[in-house]
């Protein structure tokens, strides 16, 4: 096998159209996962009756099983549930009309939610309990104290871990190929199979992923710097 350096550039160009799909899968998973993770973290911290055991079980099960397994369970299990409910209610809707990428959104969001809950929880624990009590003493309710006092500080403390989670989801988005979603790695495989230049195509994919990872790290560092500056009373 001989390396064809010129084909790395050719493959790189051919992979560019797949970047939006990768970023979309990553963004939806991270945003939905952050919402789920925040809710689960608050439920665990405040030990909400009935929901607390469910939140603990959710985090334990999801973190204890592979992400690919989550995707396959959603891909094969969700259609059974949807089609069953649709038939029971006499609806004409069938799961086959659901875009494949939606299964990736759901599965990855569930996975991200479990990991994000730990990130958010660790950020919330950084905030001194005395600050919450001080907020109560000036008449703030719990939601007000969380929104005005706790969340801004917890978010700033969580940025490095959140950035790691985003990078992790970016790399994990390659699993979406399992359900026929053509992201960067899947596109690399298609380009490689078409031209029989696998090494060059995957090198091109690696370059794109590395570039996106560096971009996320830089954006996270910039965001952390601005938030810390704002929290210290400086100009954000």
SSE layout and pairings?
Elements: H1 5-15, H2 19-45, H3 51-63, H4 67-88, H5 100-126, H6 129-137, H7 142-172, H8 184-195, H9 198-231
The gist of it:
Helix content is 79%, strand content 0%. With 236 residues, it is mainly α. The termini are far apart.
Overview of this protein structure:
The chain has 236 residues and is mostly helical. 79% of the residues lie in helices and 0% in strands. The chain is built from 9 helices and no strands. The protein has helices at residues 5-15, 19-45, 51-63, 67-88, 100-126, 129-137, 142-172, 184-195, 198-231. α5 (100-126) crosses α7, α7 (142-172) packs antiparallel against α9 (198-231) and α8 (184-195) packs antiparallel against α9 (198-231). The chain is flat, with a radius of gyration of 22 Å. The termini are far apart. The model has no long low-confidence stretch (mean pLDDT 91).
Low-confidence stretches: none
Helix content: over 70%
Structural class: mainly alpha
Order of helices and strands: HHHHHHHHH
- Overall pLDDT score: 91
Radius of gyration: 22 Å
Q: In DSSP terms, counting alpha (H) and pi (I) runs of 4 or more, how many helices?
A: 9
Q: Distance N terminus to C terminus? A: 54 Å
What general form does the structure show? flat
How many DSSP-defined strands?
A: 0
Major sheet summary line: none
What keywords describe this structure?
236 residues, mainly alpha, 9 helices, flat
């Amino acid at each position: 096998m001989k390396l064809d350096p010129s084909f790395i550039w050719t493959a790189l160009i051919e992979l560019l159209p797949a970047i939006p799909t990768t970023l979309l899968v990553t963004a939806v998973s991270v945003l939905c996962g952050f919402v789920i993770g925040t809710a689960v973290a608050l439920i665990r911290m405040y030990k909400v009756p009935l929901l607390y055991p469910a939140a603990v079980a959710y985090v334990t099960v999801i973190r204890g099983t592979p992400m690919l397994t989550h995707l396959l369970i959603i891909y094969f299990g969700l259609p059974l549930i949807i089609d069953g409910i649709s038939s029971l209610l006499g609806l004409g809707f069938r799961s086959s009309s659901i875009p494949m990428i939606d299964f990736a959104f759901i599965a990855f969001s569930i996975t991200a939610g479990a990991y994000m809950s730990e990130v958010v929880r660790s950020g919330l624990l950084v905030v001194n309990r005395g600050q919450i009590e001080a907020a109560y003493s000036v008449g703030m309710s719990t939601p007000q104290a969380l929104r005005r006092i706790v969340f801004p500080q917890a978010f700033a403390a969580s940025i490095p871990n959140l950035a790691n989670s985003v990078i992790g989801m970016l790399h994990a988005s390659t699993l979406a190929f399992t359900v026929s979603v053509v992201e960067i790695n899947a596109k690399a495989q298609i380009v490689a199979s078409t031209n029989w230049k696998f090494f060059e195509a995957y090198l091109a994919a690696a370059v794109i992923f590395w570039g996106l990872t560096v971009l996320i790290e830089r954006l996270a560092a910039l965001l952390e710097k601005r938030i810390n500056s704002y929290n210290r009373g400086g100009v954000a």
